[in-house]
Write a sequence for this structure.
């Protein structure tokens, strides 16, 4: 038998009666459960469905209509749940974006702080080097001035000595030579050249070892668990991650 579908919202008595293809004068009035198709009574008694299980068409109609209505309700409820899940996931996406933005800003602030500390410390250490360098240069230039003054005095004495050697009057020569000899003796006694101690010029003691700090910076990572509780509870005050706690 061939079954043409009709709107399910019509009552059975309002539906146009379908006629059986095998028994043209018989109305479709039963449902073959075995073949899952509507049929007529004659098909059950004499026809192809005589060995099948059948049920009243109206009861099957009402049962399937109820099942279909329940199925629709279940799908509608399921779609509502899916839509709620989609909305929740979209909210979570927004939260993830905002949380990522906040953490990037905090990370940038931490690194800016590290850069500031490094720059400040660098200036302090550079200052130590500059002060000692200035002190050493001041000492060396003082020595240079003293030796230059001594050298100039010696040159002056030498020039005076040469001039005195040309003096023809013995009395005048003796008188001038005596004064020069005394000055030469004083100058000779003060002629010991003072030099800085061995290694004075070296500034190598200002060397610095940053290998362990470099390794720490390379291994700097996020602390697991920090900030998770605050994010999950949507706490307004943001926690600051503790960088460098895992090496």
């Amino acid at each position: 038998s061939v079954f043409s579908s009709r709107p399910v919202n019509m009552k059975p008595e309002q539906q146009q009666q379908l006629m059986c293809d095998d028994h043209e004068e018989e109305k479709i009035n039963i449902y073959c459960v075995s073949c899952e198709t509507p049929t007529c009574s004659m098909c059950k008694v004499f026809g192809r469905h005589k060995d099948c299980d059948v049920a009243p068409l109206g009861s099957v109609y009402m049962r399937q209509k109820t099942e279909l209505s329940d199925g629709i309700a279940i799908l509608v409820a399921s779609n509502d749940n899916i839509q709620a899940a989609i909305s929740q996931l979209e909210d979570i996406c927004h939260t993830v974006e905002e949380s990522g933005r906040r953490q990037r800003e905090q990370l940038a602030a931490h690194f800016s702080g590290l850069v500031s500390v490094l720059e400040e410390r660098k200036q302090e250490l550079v200052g130590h080097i500059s002060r000692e360098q200035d002190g050493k240069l001041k000492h060396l230039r003082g020595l240079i001035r003293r030796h230059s003054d001594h050298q100039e005095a010696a040159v002056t004495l030498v020039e005076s000595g040469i001039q005195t050697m040309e003096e023809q009057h013995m009395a005048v020569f003796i008188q001038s030579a005596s004064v020069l000899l005394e000055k030469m003796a004083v100058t000779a006694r003060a002629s010991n050249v003072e030099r800085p101690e061995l290694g004075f010029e070296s500034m190598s003691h200002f060397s610095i070892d940053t290998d362990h700090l470099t390794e720490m910076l390379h291994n700097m990572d996020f602390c697991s668990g920090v900030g998770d509780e605050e994010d999950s509870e949507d706490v307004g005050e943001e926690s600051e991650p503790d960088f460098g706690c895992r090496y």
